[in-house]
């Protein structure tokens, strides 16, 4: 049975939703000492990084090859298996780095006597199971069937809860946002009312002049995989070196003036849903995904809530093309002549169609082509048929529309929370960097 308004999203890209929205790589990290590196690098020992096993001991805690295998299996699942063989070695190396970071986060929380109860992890695990319409027990079996495990999934949940609590104790109490700063931001927002905002996803890969060519080649491969259907969220979490990696590269809503010049030009040139070629910026390359657009402090028609009826026809396997065409024409004629939603069920019965209703469909949550069509419809009108013989064809009938309210202005509370979040995440990234620097990590 076809479901109205069901558009696939990779819910299994682990527990990223409990991480706070972070800031971009452009955050000021302070002056760094210059390293003494000769222009002509000559290695005095063989490079054996490629032959090391995917295991590590982090301050005494062991990460096994099985840990890496099971986490890789989750990423492959999130990408619907669309990871080429030549990418797997790089993916495994990145997963190992992520597992090292998780271990450091758990250890740092434990050192602060922060305890995470098993029931807390189980509760979140159950919520993820529900997102797959499974019970926790069924979800455990499902994870095992794809080569992962309950333990691997819960380990990441554990690390993220621990890291959030550690931030709450060691970072958040020392972050201050002055009222004057918030008022200044609100004044700028009010002055920018009506200008375009972009919802951006980013993947940042750092590079030096010596590694620029290799990094650009890696970035090109990532772009190609995403354009072929791989999950941007998953690739950002595993490969991005920006602080937004924890939330799948989500940079949030930004105006062009808030972005570096190169990224601003890229965002303005993209259409919603597109992913850019790698963009050279100071320090490396960025890949930009334009997820949405809106106007600052302006009600967006796409935030309207629609009441819809879906009239759909399914075709048995092997249905001849001419038979399908007849049904398609009948559905198209029905949409034009049914006379509105009140007659949808009776009209659908005459051609053997099925009717489903949804009274809470936000325009923004629909695919862009449908958004454009539905926003032009009057109550009682229907879209042209869409779909395929294999998956069924359908029309949507507009039964009602609640337009969004006009916005009065920027919210002090919202901007205060956003600015606080940004500063917390900057400090959290520096804190994790310090943990990495001081860690004793033995790769085996």
Automatic annotation (TrEMBL):
Keywords: Chaperone, Isomerase, Periplasm, Rotamase, Signal
Coiled-coil positions: none
GO molecular function: isomerase activity
Domain named PpiC: residues: 195-292
InterPro entries: OMP_Chaperone_SurA, PPIase_dom_sf, PPIase_PpiC, SurA_N, Trigger_fact/SurA_dom_sf
Superkingdom of the source species: Bacteria
Protein name (database record): Parvulin-like PPIase
UniProt source species: Sphingosinicella rhizophila
